Write the structure tokens for this entry.
Amino acid sequence: MAYSTKKLQEEKVFKDPVHRYIHVRDQVVWDLIGTKEFQRLRRIRQLGTTYLTFHGAEHSRFNHSLGVYEIIRRIVDDVFAQRPEWDESERLVSLCAALLHDLGHGPFSHSFEKVFDLDHEAFTQAIILGDTEVNQVLKRVSSEFPQNVSDVIAKTYENKQVISLISSQIDADRMDYLQRDAYFTGVSYGHFDMERILRVLRPREDQVVIKSSGMHAVEDYIMSRYQMYWQVYFHPVTRSSEVILTKILHRAKELSEMNYKFAYEPYHFVSMFNGIVTLKDYLKLDESVIMYYFQMWEEEKDPILRDLCSRFMNRNLFKYVEFDPSKEYKKLNELEKLFQQAELNPDYYLVVDSSSDLPYDFYRPGEEEERVPIHLMMPSGELRELSRQSDIVDAISGKRRTDHKLYYPKDCVTDDSTHKEVKAKIKTILGIE
């Protein structure tokens, strides 16, 4: 029997709080789960620093990746099976791409990427195509199979149906993380009728569409996504912890560039600081390694690094005020000068953070990040873009919401033991009683 079609002697299942069970029947999928690169995802949290806001948010990229795989498995094995518009030969590449789509995420994901100018999708592709256990498993299917899986994740695969299953405005990735993140944070916003959505999914030419009878389930999904972004993903306390995390990494990088002598040399960061990151070095990094360094740096001689690490480890986070950079830039300039006078480095202790989201958009040629719309399939077979049929979706289509906050260490500002007059001015500007 060919490796690509080989089944396990007995089906394996993972007990899952979101999907009840995750079923594995394919030998290829089971072998991929067992690779060290995939097992590393157990040590990367799905929601980064959100556990400092919602204490239950300890779930991992491993959990999520299995969940996305399970949704795709149900679609291709149950919903799309025997439909003439679906090519059964795309089944395995769909399953593998779903399972591996987040393989390249680093510790604390997006914050880490910003500091070191990295791209987790590029690392996902590098793991799939490089000298890895994952690549060895995929090559057993065929010599071109790793490239096919990589192309799906890069959104360059020739079959756009497969891409849209894993990456679109209503895809398996979002359907899993909204429900999973809602479950582990304990909020109710992210719940929607996924069972209904799966029942009304249909393959059509180069995309996946929704039967018009399922429009209300899709409306519910889009509103769930909107609420999760503003109530969980952009929560100001979570953003505060991300600000501190980012500033720790910036400070460590700056000290390295200054040839500062660390009490404990950050060997795992050397290639990051040098800007030449090898795949081998990248795969050694996970959140346990990062937290170890943060704990060690709590005793560093550099006061800024020491303080920031202590704040992060002990959850002594920055406070915030609402801030409009277009109108209050003069206030920011004045605060920066006052912070310097108070011996608080504004580069690290006065931070403007912005959150922005576009809940749904239709296709607008030529714009950045063009979004393929969600199409409804009418009883006649005609396709209509979702916002043309739904008043609810139409009301939020193309509307980007942006929020700005100014973060600062309130404990330092309210400590009158030093620079009392300067801090009094700071408190007045920030509106601190």
User: Anything to note?
Assistant: The longest strand covers residues 7-16. The first helix runs from residue 27 to 33. The chain has 23 helices and nine strands. The radius of gyration is 24 Å.
